[in-house]
Predict the structure.
Amino acid sequence: RKEVEQDPGPFNVPEGATVAFNCTYSNSASQSFFWYRQDCRKEPKLLMSVYSSGNEDGRFTAQLNRASQYISLLIRDSKLSDSATYLCVVNIKGSYKLIFGSGTRLLVRP
Amino acid sequence: DGGITQSPKYLFRKEGQNVTLSCEQNLNHDAMYWYRQDPGQGLRLIYYSQIVNDFQKGDIAEGYSVSREKKESFPLTVTSAQKNPTAFYLCASSIPQDNYGYTFGSGTRLTVV
């Protein structure tokens, strides 16, 4: 079983749609959580950290459910420029390493 | 501006050759990392270093070597023992204590010819 699992997609949505991605992690010692965005043939870039109480950054909302070991990312009012792969990332307590999911691909169409 | 510089952007290797990928950062980060990404796959950790003159193997270290003689630099050598080296290689750095995630370089795309 992978340590971080994501639905690979692709999610194909029209502009203006709301789309949600889910991610599960297997290690209960995971302590920090992130969503990264990766454009085709580019490096990943930090989109947002995920806090226990949930957090919002403009059109993006991240939620964490520690009991179910589940993280989500909601994108409202999708833009063409949101098309990318979204990586779910966790850090294990006591480790400097980040563990990456394989990513969920989003395609936003006009 | 602070950041991480990887070079070269594209690299072609012949069978049996060793090649070295450069990674330099001016962010004053203590920790540095090398990841490999294959098409449609997630990132897999090759090596990481928390301080100068110290480094640890990641999940797929076989066929690779690193050094950390300076805080700013963490070069990766892909040796001839790595049987399938064609991939996208990403270097990253972080301040482990602040938990704000990694900063990545723009990557090196290595192809065996």
In short: Chain B touches chain A through 24 residues (CB under 8 Å). Chain B has a mean pLDDT of 92. The two ends of chain B are 36 Å apart (CA to CA).
